[in-house]
Amino acid sequence: MSFEYRIEEKEGVYIVYFNGRILDRSEAENLMDEMEELMSSGKHDFVINLSGIDYMNSAGLGVLISLLNQSRDEYGTLVLCSVPEKINQLIITSKLQNIFKLAETQEEALKTFEK
Q: How far apart are CA 33 and CA 26, in angstroms?
């Protein structure tokens, strides 16, 4: 299954649902462009729900790091949630668990943004 995504807004936070596999950065170019548009229009708070990801390699991690950097450049927050065990192990192996904000569930991730 190729990479797909959808974005929903909930109380000012944008939830990005990933689905499929991320094997190459080019598969996520539309996502990167859409996220950049949202951020340049003042949207800064994002939850990336990874529950639908079957497989991710270093290119997929590169996409997540790029999104995180874009968000930080705009003084925003990006939280990863519902991370499958295989992807979590990739994050740990890559020593990125202290770089990303991680939440077990989407609900927990959304609480990060409560004021």
A: 11
Cα gap 68→101, rounded to integer Å: 10
pLDDT confidence bin for 11, thresholds 50/70/90: confident
User: By three-state DSSP, how is residue 24 classified?
Assistant: coil
Which SS3 state, helix, strand or coil, does residue 40 take? helix
Which residues have a Cβ under 8 Å from the Cβ of 1 and sit 6 or more positions away? 19, 20, 21, 54
pLDDT tens string 56-93: 998 999 999 999 999 999 899 999 999 999 999 999 99
Q: Tokens in use for 70?
A: 């874009």
Task: Tell me how far apart the alpha carbons of residues 77 and 33 are, in angstroms, rounded to a whole number.
Answer: 18
Q: What are 19-39's pLDDT values in tens digits?
A: 999 888 888 999 999 999 999
